[in-house]
Fold:
Amino acid sequence: MMLIKIGGGEQINLPAVIADLAEQAQPFIVVHGANVLRDQLAERLGMEKTVLTSVSGYSSVFSDQDAIDVILMSYSGLRNKQIVELCQRRDINAIGLTGLDGRLVQGERNKGIRVRENGKTLIKRDLSGKPRSINASLLQLLLDNGYCPVLTIPIVDEKGYAINSENDDIVAQLAAELDIDTVLQLIEAPGFLDDPDDEGSLVTQMSAAELATREAAVEGRIKRKLLALTRLCQGGKTKIIIADGRGEHPVADALNGSGTHIQ
Structure:
């Protein structure tokens, strides 16, 4: 089974992605982002986004209740249903879900994020957490009956509250608990780049050991993404492809060798 993670950038060619998926014979699950849509909606609502960087160098969006409300509107509302509609137009019987629905993605609330401010170490607590388990029986029930799950945040915490989480971590949890042989991540770049500002610096092949080395050498959002990719590799059975989601055949091109392939 294949897992497709569709990035949340505005240049992702969603109609082309879904058209390619309609040609796939194997079952698949979609996990999608909506970060640009979230930021646009938050700006229109007058809600300023706050990004925290932990003392260990990982960056994340500070998730108060306003942030969760915007996630519900943008990720699980507009973008999720846009993708479901595109799927239905291509005869993919998609069903849109969040981690809340049926406790599909059970998470654990973060104890707090250790940050440095004005020379002091502070603990910032918010409505965010990490996925700990998947309701695999619910997903299998849907797949067995011909439905294509289209999944996004928020996930659910121990007490039933909606919490923010990283889609990369959700993908890693899904791959760990389900029979996933290929994870395809579609982004706004040809694949993993040595230089983020140079699309000609594509890394076509990468090992798990190289991933870990690169993760240790960077900071910010990319550090968190590389850590999640490293965890994906730990099972040893999943092939990972990071490829361009902007083209006319994003899925077909990736499966035929384009992008960055990590084995």
In short: The helical segments are 14-21, 35-44, 65-89, 136-144, 167-177, 208-217, 221-233, 250-255. The two ends are 16 Å apart (CA to CA). The chain has a mean pLDDT of 91. The chain is about 35% helix and 25% strand.
